[in-house]
Write a structure and sequence with these properties.
Strand order of the largest sheet: 1-2-3-6-7
CATH superfamily: Peptide deformylase
Number of domains: 1
Strand content: 25-35%
Radius of gyration: 16 Å
Distance between the termini: 38 Å
Helix content: 25-40%
CATH topology: Peptide Deformylase
Number of strands: 7
Largest sheet: 5 strands, antiparallel
Shape: globular
CATH class: Alpha Beta
CATH architecture: Alpha-Beta Complex
Number of helices: 3
Structural class: alpha+beta
Bound molecules: cobalt (II) ion
Length: 174
């Protein structure tokens, strides 16, 4: 039987779910595995390299990342209850977000991070990343704390972004 595909809609800023801290996951069963698969499918459908559960209106500590965008199965990572446990260095690169379409701004992040998380079976593991993976890990874990990348730019730049969003909203393009 072919796998049933369920694509979840990605919510946009300023949906309040994006500003909430997600709840920890305590049950690791087939439902969680199915949800993670749906999150990967929804992320790919939206052309993203990372997706956090709050972005599909689920206030839970789950995120999926694939910085290779389907090219390398080894880079598909599902993180349940992730925490950044170590960070070093600094990188400043442009960032975007599926919940803030068409907005791109330079964001300062740690250059390297070590993250501790559980897999879909509840087993703890660690993942280390630099460059784009480090950025994706920090961006997605921020989502689980109700933080968006526009919360990490200067007040002036943030004001300009919010003005652009208001204009798009007014034109029915947001
Ligand atoms: Co995002």
């Amino acid at each position: 039987m072919a796998k049933r595909l369920k694509i979840h809609e990605v919510v946009k800023y300023p949906d309040p779910v994006l500003a909430k801290r997600g709840e920890a996951i305590t049950e690791f069963g087939p439902e969680l595995k199915a949800l993670v698969d749906e999150m990967f499918d929804s992320m790919y459908a939206a052309q993203g390299i990372g997706l956090a559960a709050p972005q599909i209106s689920l206030s839970k500590r789950i995120t999926v990342i694939d910085v290779s965008f389907k090219k390398d199965p080894e880079q598909k990572i599902a993180l349940i209850n992730p925490e950044v446990v170590e960070r070093t260095g600094k990188q400043v690169e442009e960032e975007g977000c599926l919940s803030l379409p068409e907005i791109r701004e330079k964001v300062e992040r740690a250059a390297w991070v070590k993250v501790r998380a559980q897999d879909v079976t509840g087993k703890w593991f660690e993942v280390e990343g630099e460059e784009l993976l480090a950025r994706a890990l920090q961006h997605e874990i921020d989502h689980l704390d109700g933080v968006l990348f526009i919360d990490r730019i200067s007040r002036l730049k943030r004001e300009l972004v919010l003005r652009k969003i208001r204009k798009l909203q007014k034109n029915g393009e947001w």
